[in-house]
Amino acid sequence: MDKIIKKTIYGNITFPKNDYIASKCDEHKWYHGKNCHTGNIIGRINSMIQPNSNIIDVGAFVGTFSVPLLEEGHASFMFESCNDFYQILKENTSKYSKASRINKAVGNKNTRVGVSLQNMNFGGTHIVRGDDVEMITLDSFFKDINRVDFIKIDVESYEYYVLQGAIEIIKKFKPIILWENLTPTFKDNSLDKILGAKDNCFSLLKELGYNKHEDLSNNILSYV
After folding, report:
1. What is the pLDDT of residues 107-146, one digit of tens each?
2. Domain, as residue range, for 113
3. Are 90 and 66 in contact (CB under 8 A)?
4. In what order do the strands lie in the sheet with 99-102?
5. How far is CA 190 from CA 103, 171, 184, 200, 205, in A?
6. CATH number of residue 135's parent domain
7. Residue 64 lies in a domain
8. Looking at the 3D structure of the chain, how many domains does it have?
9. Model confidence over 160-197: pLDDT tens digits?
10. Residues 6+ away with beta carbon under 8 Å from 111
11. pTM for the whole thing?
12. Is residue 147 part of a domain?
């Protein structure tokens, strides 16, 4: 995969060449930070979580969400299913002692899935039926963890399945959850993405005691 290095407010960051997100980042702006089309999502999250929090980043891409939080001293467990992005993720987060990178997909069962790479908007890459990468549940992966403060889920309409596979840690720790709320536009050998619809996520979160929600530019911030 061709790459490009961008100078950002967090130093030099590597992106896939010609990616949409890369075009939004420079030394004055950051895709998930101030002065960007998503609003100051990072600032809002930092105002809600405690110092030295444990963060789970599902759909980490190349670190565009986790890098600002790692800079603040939080620990981030970053899951990325696409191996090309995972290699760049390792490069971008290698200097952080609290960065954990996991080359796996996340869902509601332990199995194997394929990965569909979306050219240009690489952030739209999503899982499909196939045998490219292992898929795990957060409950199985973090069965011995003693703290989860925040979960971010950006998996192209597969959010509901990720929540299903994280019910036990959500019940136990009641983390703040940021999840993407977008309608999928791709047509390929995808899994049943319709269950990732907003209403299903809201219903499940309500069952788990989440009654507060904020709309943050195509993302929903949910908490108790």
Report:
1. 999 999 998 887 766 767 888 889 999 999 999 999 999 9
2. 38-223
3. no
4. 99-102, 75-79, 54-58, 150-153, 176-180, 219-223, 212-215
5. 20, 29, 10, 18, 24
6. 3.40.50.150
7. yes
8. 1
9. 999 999 999 999 999 999 998 876 655 555 555 554 56
10. 134, 135
11. 0.90
12. yes
